[in-house]
Amino acid sequence: MNIKYQAKNPTPVAQTITIPRGMILDGSRLRTAEAITVEVPPMSVREVVYDESGMPVSEGCIQDLTVNIVNDEGTTIDPHSSRRERTTIANPSGDHRQLYVERAREVFPNLVVDDNRCIGGAQLMAQFSHLRSQRDNTTAIYSPAALNMAFDARTDGLYHAASTGMVTIESIVGSGHDRANAITMRIANPGQNVVRVVVPQGTMFEQQAWTGKQNLVVKEDVWIDIQPGQTGNFPLPAFCANASAGSPNGNPMNLTPFVFHDMGGTFTDQGTLWRTTDSRRRGHLG
């Protein structure tokens, strides 16, 4: 039985995507037997077909990844959905940053946004929507799927633990990028049991305020054990998510429920991630 892998390119420029050797293809059962590199056109996905031994046998069809659902202004979007859609907003005038943030909160009314708990997501959707709107020559709030993200629904993840009160995030500070401690979280476990959670590779952290500083994305899976009654500082390795912004310098940040998709080698280095998020046709985050 053949298995298909989808190499996605949600950027407006062609991408060379490497599918590494040893990557899981089918749950935890099948891994790729060798590394291959494929060319993926702008805003599209190329299927690569593997046999039961993990060997690539063919490159399948190319599918369009452009936004295929355009909603009227005010239409809400389910952040869990895999639909590529956008909700139009009025042509911004004055402070476009505030307008995008306000509309993002309206479009995603069920997102938990609480700076005191260091949980968010609306600010991230606003900023990435602003960047994509510049590239698409429109004004809209985009779905996570249209921004190459997915909602993290894992019950063993930090977001689930923080949003349900299993742990309390007292602070998140962003300091630099492409380093082992780009993010420092101070987390408390108020319960009587050990809490073990993961921060998945690709987890997005947003700036609490739109100051022109970078959002951050976690480079690799990080597991955290928090003992009963413990409060501790936990560092995370992270890349900068926005090439068109300044590096964080002690900025307060929020954990978001959004995870950036690995397109094949996306998290290899900072430059590769930038080509995935902002591409070479960069907009301006500030």
Summarize the structure in words.
14% of the residues lie in helices and 38% in strands. It has 286 residues and is mostly beta strands. It has 2 domains: 3-64; 67-286, no CATH class. Strands 12-13-18-16-15-19 form a 6-stranded antiparallel barrel. It is globular and about 50 Å long. The model has no long low-confidence stretch (mean pLDDT 89).
Key features of this structure:
mainly beta; 286 residues; 19 strands; single chain; six-stranded antiparallel beta barrel; globular; 2 domains; three-stranded antiparallel beta sheet
Please give a quick description of this structure:
By secondary structure, this protein is mostly beta strands. It has helices spanning about 95-105, 120-135, 160-165, 270-275; strands at about 5-10, 15-20, 25, 30, 35-40, 45-50, 55-65, 70, 85-90, 140, 150, 170-175, 180-190, 195-200, 205, 215-220, 220-225, 230-240, 250-260. A hairpin with an 8-residue loop joins strand 15 and strand 16.
